[in-house]
Amino acid sequence: MPAQPPTILILPLGRLETLVLRVVAGYIQGILKVPVDIGETVEVPQETYIPDRHQYDAGLLIRFLREFAPSYRCVLGITSVDITLPIFTHVFGEAELGGHAALVSTYRLGKDTHGRRVTDAVFYERVAKVALHEIGHVFSLYHCGDGKCVMRFSAKLDGLDEIPLYFCDRCYFLLRRMIFRNRAGEDT
Prior knowledge:
The protein has helices at about 20-30, 60-65, 120-140, 155-160, 170-180, 185; strands at about 10-15, 35-40, 50, 55, 75-80, 85, 95, 100-105. It is an alpha/beta fold and about 190 residues long.
């Protein structure tokens, strides 16, 4: 009997539109074919704020999200605050490679490179791409060199827009294998 797919928890961090959460959940369910729960809103921990940068530390937020992981294989936090890592000016998302937590920030995804608002369709697609990319990292996928794969690295909006909303065959195969791997063997 094959292992049951794990459940992914989408956890809103701070104030977010419900539609963003539902759209991301729909893409995850449709592409990864795993059950997704949407949790209750949790406030963004103030201790993750970096005052001199006016941003939140993505690494500390990932650590915070781990607290919600025991009942889920992957916890995906979605927030509207600006996030960063020490070596970057900003990041769209972050994840624990092979861990249990991932994070997406919508802060920079709703505007174009000139600061103008993008259409809802572009915004939701960007959020879904970043979410799937970060979930791929949770399930041990590295960045992919295939330009037609959502696991391709992109630090800029133009690059993100060029990436399709699906995995290449290789990454999808590896991802499905990791998703359905027997949980009993994961922690050994």
